[in-house]
Design goal:
Length: about 270
Amino acid sequence: MTVFDNISYYKCKATQLNVKPVVNPLGGNWSPEQVAAGFAALEITPEDHYIKYGKSEGIVGFDTCNIESMKSHWDSKREYKEIIVNKRKNGEKVNVCDFIKPNDTVIAQDVDENNLHIINQCTCDSQVLNIYKRAGHGLFYRSDLELYGQSEYWAFPAEVREKNNAGDCEDMAHVIASYFEAAGLSYWRYAVCTGTANIGIGHSTIYYLRDNNSWCLLDSTGGVPNGADINSAAFPILGTLGHDNHGHALSTFDRCYNSKKSWWGFEY
């Protein structure tokens, strides 16, 4: 359990007041001590202030979660291994991590132009959903046989663009994952996973670690229902009945990976 950091919150709130700026009745810049005195006068705790106001104010620099602790937790549950696939033409072998291209210039430019950069790793669910929508916009499902003349072909994001934004499930997953990391999402907050879907077919899709530390499905080939947010049933959580009943959720996991790490199976 993370203890709310009162001192850091006072500092971040003081910085926000000075940047806006908000006039200090005592003159000069706001200090953390003055913010603390103001909260005390209003009989509100820093944590209550954050819940009621701070989240929506977007106080820069303040995290209610411990990023390093979360990263260490998920790293400890995975045995990282290099995974090589032979899923291209002429026997070309590629590390699965290399299919994700956060430095793709076209994707990076689109992230910039649409203001998709992650601001706070601790509270980024709504931003991730926007990135997911943007990355999947205009992608069309086509079989590898139709596009490349072979039953299985793993494409890089640039190749998907060359095919007029067409690809199958893993191609779409690689495009979406590339957007995530281009926008600044930490690599350990998501995973591209292959395996068997609940409907009994082979599938490649994406799982995302939500702000509340639960993993949800962001289907590589699925659209987003109007009005749905990342906490809705449209994005079922691993280990729940909703996940077990979703056709494209994985019932068994094979490879999982991001741009830096790969592993077999999925612990959650």
